[in-house]
Structure formats: structure tokens, C-alpha cells
Amino acid sequence: MNLPIVYHPQYVAPLPDEHRFPMSKFTLLYELLVRKKIAKSNDIYFPEFPEESLLELVHSNNYITAYCQGTLKEKEQRRIGLPWSEALAKRTCIAVGGTILTAKLALKFGLACNTAGGTHHAFRSYGSGFCIFNDLAITTRVLQKLKLVKTVLILDLDVHQGDGTAKIFQNDPTVFTFSMHCESNFPREKQKSDLDVSLPQGLDDDGYLQILSEHLHDLLSQIKPDLILYDAGVDVHAQDHFGKLSLTDTGIYRREMLILSSCIAQGYPVASVIGGGYSKDLKSLVERHSLLHRAAKEVYEFYQL
Predict the structure, then answer these.
(1) 140-163 burial string, b = 16+ CB within 10 Å, else e?
(2) What three-state secondary structure class fits 113?
């Protein structure tokens, strides 16, 4: 058995030219993983389309209906930042199914990676920042409803605060939200996570990893989660279009190894999603996202999961 990886070819939906670029990276990432033999055909999993009742565990029925039917008000649509289409609505739902499946695989095998996911700016009744439905929140509620987990730790290392996730789980003792993000970045109005670590603009590899390592051990020992959902955004990179931090490819790889090896060594299953990444150099961006899967494969094989 090799590292389980979730891929959904439905993820790329027809979009206007100005919006097509951020979507094409998902297919290119999968192709790179196969080409480099990080992903093997026998270990690729394809998600199912989630029932609407699962979305309703987090999002309001009115919002789900309005988005899926394309009747959101113009202001609400602008806040999301992506033009509506039926294909995009379907892609959005199957993406949620992908993170749910990744989490189930992580519980079964100890570690699993998605080739998408991390829509942490979606709130209960509206979307924001390219995020429509909050896959991390929905996955948490689905697994709790199925009684597969009680306590979940959401490790959000995207460069932007996971504001939607923080708000959804505010005052919920069964879900611990940790967000380590650039302070001077989107969203302008931050929410309150269980633990927020705000980083100064321009922080480099060593500074970033030192801060992360200072918090990681305490998080694991104090929370003892049944599952960790890890948002491995690569928009922390120095060349990211929306980043404002200064990590290198090496720094991101070191981050993934630190997170995954620390969690797995202590027996905590990890479901990883790729989070944000917006470099104009698409080839470099896809390589950057693949560092998560490369590190996960090495950790998976080392611990013989």
C-alpha cells in the first residue's frame, strides 16, 4: 500500500480566460505526481458528489440553494471572486467530497493527501476569497456526525488567516483552530481562531520554522486530536502573487516534513489539503504544491503506514 491520494478530474470547470489559470493547476499537479511516481494508479481515489444534507451541516440552506442555482446577489458573488457557472458549482461540491474522502482515508491509513481543498474563507452563509463552501468545516462535521472522530485539530498554514473556519467553530470545544498567517494580508478583518500566530511581512524559512516548531509540540500534546486536518498553503512562498512572506521551496518542504513527521510519530492521523498558491509561474507553483505529497510519501514509507 502506497500513500493514498485523492484526485477529482471534475475539479477543472470551464471558466472565462481571466479565471482559468488558478483552476488549471489542479490537473497539472496530478499529472506531475504521476510523472514523478509520487502517485500510483492503485492508490488514487476519486470522491463522490456529496449530498446537500452534508453541506447543511455547516452552511445555511438559503446560501447553498442560492449558490448552486446561480441566484446569489451580485455583491455576494463579487465577494467570492469567481464568476458563477453550473460547471463551477458542480466542481465546488465534488471538491468538498474530495476532502471528506481524504479524511476518511487518513483515519484508515494514518495519512492521506488531497490534490485540492483548503477553502477556509467560506463562512456559514456566504463565500469569500475564492472560497465557496468550507471543505475543512464540512469534513469535520461529517466525520463527527458519523462518530468517526470527536476532537479535530485544524492546522492552517496558508498565508491568509482561516477566517471562515475560525468563525464557524468559535466556542466549539471539539474543534481546535490554529492559524499561522501573515498579519498584513487578506482578510483585513481577522476572526478569532483558538490560536492565531501573526507573522511579520518578509519572514524567511528559518524564522518561520522556528515559530512553527515552538507551537506544534504543545498543540499536539494538549489537544490530542482524533484527526488533524492540515491546510498546506504554499502562498507563503517569496514568489507568490498574494503572499508577503519569503519562504523558499526548501523551506516549504521542511515545513511539510516537520508537520507530517511530528504528527505521525505521535500517532495522530493527518488529512492534508493543498490550500492557496497564486504564483504567476504555473510550473513553479505546481512543483511547490507537490512538495506536500513528496514529503507525505517519504513520511508514509518511513513509518510503514
Answers:
(1) bbbbbeeeebeebbbbbbbbbbbb
(2) strand
Distance CA(138)–CA(94), nearest Å, equals: 12
Amino acid at 190: K
How many Å apart are CA 70 and CA 126, to the nearest integer?
13
Cα–Cα dist 55/279, whole Å: 30
Question: Across the chain, where does the E strand assignment appear?
Answer: 5-6, 44-45, 111-114, 152-156, 175-182, 195-199, 227-231, 270-273
User: Angle at which helices 282-302 and 249-265 pack, to 10 degrees?
Assistant: 30
Which residues lie below 8 Å from residue 201, measured CB to CB, with a gap of 6+? Answer: 182, 183, 184, 244, 245
**Cell numbers representing residue 188 in the block:** 483585513
Which has the minimum average pLDDT: 6-10, 141-145, 208-212? 6-10
Q: How far apart are CA 65 and CA 58, in angstroms?
A: 13
Number of domains in the chain: 1
Rounded average pLDDT over 223-247: 96
What's the pLDDT tens digit per position in 190-200? 999 999 999 99
Question: What is the value of pTM for the model shown?
Answer: 0.95
Q: At what angle do helices 205-223 and 249-265 cross, to 10 degrees?
A: 20
Q: What does the pLDDT look like over 70-92, one tens digit per residue?
A: 999 999 999 999 989 888 899 89
> What domain range is 33 assigned to?
5-302
Position 15 pLDDT exceeds 70? no
Residue 223, domain CATH: 3.40.800.20
